[in-house]
Amino acid sequence: MAPKSSTNGTTMMMGHKMHGMMMHMTFFWGKDTLILFNGFPAGNTGHYVLALFMIFIMSILIEFISHTRFIKPHTNPMVARFIQTLLHFLRISLAYLVMLALMSFNGGVFLVAILGHALGFFFSTRAYKEPHQPFDLPPMTC
Protein backbone atom coordinates (compact mmCIF):
# COMPACT_ATOMS: atom_id res chain seq x y z
CA MET A 1 0.00 0.00 0.00
CA ALA A 2 1.57 3.30 -1.04
CA PRO A 3 1.71 6.14 1.50
CA LYS A 4 -1.22 8.54 1.22
CA SER A 5 -0.96 12.17 2.19
CA SER A 6 -3.70 14.32 3.61
CA THR A 7 -4.05 18.11 3.70
CA ASN A 8 -3.03 18.47 7.36
CA GLY A 9 0.49 17.02 6.87
CA THR A 10 -0.33 13.64 8.38
CA THR A 11 0.88 10.63 6.44
CA MET A 12 -0.94 7.31 6.44
CA MET A 13 1.35 4.30 6.11
CA MET A 14 -0.01 0.78 6.47
CA GLY A 15 -3.00 2.18 8.33
CA HIS A 16 -0.94 4.04 10.97
CA LYS A 17 -0.75 7.81 11.22
CA MET A 18 2.76 9.21 11.13
CA HIS A 19 2.58 12.83 12.31
CA GLY A 20 5.38 14.41 10.32
CA MET A 21 7.86 11.59 11.16
CA MET A 22 9.46 9.41 8.53
CA MET A 23 10.13 5.74 9.25
CA HIS A 24 13.76 4.96 8.43
CA MET A 25 14.71 1.60 6.99
CA THR A 26 18.48 2.30 6.95
CA PHE A 27 20.85 3.62 9.61
CA PHE A 28 20.77 7.38 10.11
CA TRP A 29 22.22 9.87 12.59
CA GLY A 30 20.28 12.41 14.57
CA LYS A 31 17.96 12.97 17.49
CA ASP A 32 14.81 13.12 15.36
CA THR A 33 13.72 9.53 15.87
CA LEU A 34 11.13 7.47 17.71
CA ILE A 35 12.49 4.94 20.21
CA LEU A 36 10.09 2.38 21.72
CA PHE A 37 7.22 4.82 22.37
CA ASN A 38 5.16 7.05 20.11
CA GLY A 39 6.35 10.64 20.52
CA PHE A 40 9.57 9.75 22.39
CA PRO A 41 12.09 11.39 22.07
CA ALA A 42 10.72 13.08 18.87
CA GLY A 43 13.45 15.68 18.49
CA ASN A 44 13.88 16.61 22.17
CA THR A 45 17.64 16.49 22.85
CA GLY A 46 17.23 15.77 26.57
CA HIS A 47 14.86 12.90 25.93
CA TYR A 48 17.15 11.52 23.22
CA VAL A 49 20.11 11.49 25.63
CA LEU A 50 17.89 9.86 28.28
CA ALA A 51 16.83 7.17 25.79
CA LEU A 52 20.47 6.48 24.86
CA PHE A 53 21.41 6.25 28.54
CA MET A 54 18.58 3.81 29.28
CA ILE A 55 19.52 1.60 26.30
CA PHE A 56 23.14 1.64 27.51
CA ILE A 57 22.08 0.58 31.04
CA MET A 58 19.75 -2.14 29.72
CA SER A 59 22.58 -3.56 27.58
CA ILE A 60 24.92 -3.64 30.58
CA LEU A 61 22.23 -5.34 32.71
CA ILE A 62 21.69 -8.04 30.08
CA GLU A 63 25.36 -9.03 30.28
CA PHE A 64 25.44 -8.69 34.07
CA ILE A 65 22.44 -10.98 34.51
CA SER A 66 23.92 -13.47 32.04
CA HIS A 67 27.30 -13.74 33.76
CA THR A 68 26.57 -13.34 37.48
CA ARG A 69 25.78 -15.99 40.06
CA PHE A 70 22.78 -15.03 42.18
CA ILE A 71 21.86 -18.48 43.47
CA LYS A 72 23.88 -19.94 46.35
CA PRO A 73 25.12 -23.55 45.92
CA HIS A 74 22.84 -25.14 48.56
CA THR A 75 19.62 -23.30 47.72
CA ASN A 76 16.36 -25.27 47.69
CA PRO A 77 15.95 -26.57 44.09
CA MET A 78 12.43 -25.16 43.78
CA VAL A 79 13.56 -21.72 44.95
CA ALA A 80 16.58 -21.92 42.62
CA ARG A 81 14.32 -22.75 39.66
CA PHE A 82 12.03 -19.84 40.53
CA ILE A 83 14.99 -17.43 40.71
CA GLN A 84 16.34 -18.78 37.41
CA THR A 85 12.94 -18.21 35.80
CA LEU A 86 12.75 -14.63 37.08
CA LEU A 87 16.30 -13.92 35.86
CA HIS A 88 15.49 -15.42 32.47
CA PHE A 89 12.31 -13.32 32.24
CA LEU A 90 14.24 -10.15 33.10
CA ARG A 91 17.12 -10.89 30.71
CA ILE A 92 14.85 -11.71 27.76
CA SER A 93 12.60 -8.69 28.45
CA LEU A 94 15.59 -6.36 28.44
CA ALA A 95 17.05 -8.02 25.34
CA TYR A 96 13.79 -7.58 23.42
CA LEU A 97 13.51 -3.92 24.49
CA VAL A 98 17.05 -3.25 23.26
CA MET A 99 16.29 -5.08 20.02
CA LEU A 100 13.13 -3.02 19.49
CA ALA A 101 15.07 0.18 20.19
CA LEU A 102 17.62 -0.88 17.58
CA MET A 103 14.79 -1.15 15.07
CA SER A 104 14.65 2.66 15.10
CA PHE A 105 17.77 2.37 12.87
CA ASN A 106 19.36 5.27 14.74
CA GLY A 107 23.18 5.19 14.73
CA GLY A 108 23.40 6.52 18.30
CA VAL A 109 21.10 3.79 19.59
CA PHE A 110 23.21 1.17 17.80
CA LEU A 111 26.46 2.50 19.27
CA VAL A 112 25.24 2.70 22.88
CA ALA A 113 23.70 -0.80 22.68
CA ILE A 114 26.96 -2.31 21.41
CA LEU A 115 29.07 -0.35 23.91
CA GLY A 116 26.75 -1.35 26.76
CA HIS A 117 26.98 -5.03 25.86
CA ALA A 118 30.77 -4.81 25.52
CA LEU A 119 31.22 -2.98 28.84
CA GLY A 120 28.82 -5.32 30.63
CA PHE A 121 30.65 -8.34 29.25
CA PHE A 122 34.06 -6.88 30.17
CA PHE A 123 33.13 -6.36 33.82
CA SER A 124 31.24 -9.62 34.26
CA THR A 125 33.48 -12.14 32.49
CA ARG A 126 35.03 -15.16 34.11
CA ALA A 127 38.34 -13.30 34.61
CA TYR A 128 36.79 -11.69 37.71
CA LYS A 129 35.23 -14.89 39.01
CA GLU A 130 36.50 -18.01 40.66
CA PRO A 131 37.58 -20.64 38.13
CA HIS A 132 35.01 -23.35 37.24
CA GLN A 133 32.15 -21.44 38.85
CA PRO A 134 28.95 -22.04 36.86
CA PHE A 135 26.53 -19.22 36.16
CA ASP A 136 22.83 -19.26 36.96
CA LEU A 137 21.69 -18.90 33.36
CA PRO A 138 23.05 -20.48 30.19
CA PRO A 139 24.62 -18.02 27.75
CA MET A 140 22.35 -16.38 25.19
CA THR A 141 22.90 -17.80 21.72
CA CYS A 142 22.89 -15.75 18.56
Automatic annotation (TrEMBL):
PANTHER family: COPPER TRANSPORTER 2-RELATED, SOLUTE CARRIER FAMILY 31 COPPER TRANSPORTERS. Its main location: membrane. Belongs to the copper transporter (Ctr) (TC 1.A.56) family. SLC31A subfamily. It is a multi-pass membrane protein. InterPro entries: Cop_transporter. It is found in: Membrane. GO terms for cellular component: plasma membrane. Coiled coil: none annotated. Keywords: Copper, Copper transport, Ion transport, Membrane, Transmembrane, Transmembrane helix, Transport. The chain crosses the membrane at residues 21-40, 46-66, 105-123. GO terms for molecular function: copper ion transmembrane transporter activity. This is Copper transport protein.
